[in-house]
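Data deposition worksheet. Section B asks for the primary sequence of the deposited chain exactly as it was used as input, without tags or linkers unless they were present during the calculation. Section C holds the resulting structure in token form. Section D is free text for depositor observations; keep each observation to a single sentence. Incomplete worksheets are returned to the depositor.
Section A, Depositor: J.P.
Section B:
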Amino acid sequence: MDIALLNTRITIQKASVTADKIGNRKNGWTDYYSCAATVSGEASSSVGSEKDAAGTTVDHSDISFTVRWCNAVSQVDSVGYRILFGSGIYNILAVDHMSFKKKSIKFRCKKEVRS
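Section C:
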């Protein structure tokens, strides 16, 4: 893996449940890990990623992030984690361990629709 390609900083967040002082539980997100990544698929998907739905324009960006392998990143799955990149929130659709060689991990993501 060419280290020069890891030119973008991403933050991986983990789903968490917090309780206040009287015991009410609330779902939230906490920062889990921050690292350098290679971003791919953004330029090609931005051309045709917007669609009209019910009179509004909705962005459906698909993007992939490739990061170096480490123990913390190897624990990330597609259920309880998400990725912050720039001003967007991306839900993880699939995790590719790149033939389990312990060199890199690729996350295929979709931009979260926020209303």
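Section D:
Helices lie at 42-47, 71-74.
Strands lie at 8-19, 25-40, 50-53, 56-59, 62-68, 81-85, 88-96, 104-111.
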